[in-house]
Amino acid sequence: MARKAQDSASALAALLATDRVELATEFLAYSFTAILDDAFPRRAESELGGMFAEFAQVRLNKWLWRPTQEPDATVFRLLLEVVLLWERADLAARARSEPVEVALLMPGEALLRTEDPRAAVRSALRSVRR
Asked: Taking the model in full, what pTM does it have?
């Protein structure tokens, strides 16, 4: 196996082993902190996919919205899990737009603006995670 493939496989294994609440917490901060002052903070779903792979240090083959090979398929499925966690906690939600976007909701923005945003987001996510 080539070194890049090993590195990507290791990164994917580490990503799969990560607690989903921790993953969702860190990725919310990573995704939206830089655009908190936008009137409508949002990211295109395709942009989030690329950001998620970069965040996780997983090299994608080719980002497709119906991925059929690894690591793309696993990255996309994990991204969906993260977005669902955000939605359950009313932190962010998929907007009905074309292309699909994920918008930061006001409660999510408020938590990211707190003194300890990661602790606040983590608490909100854990309260809805059963």
From this structure: 0.87
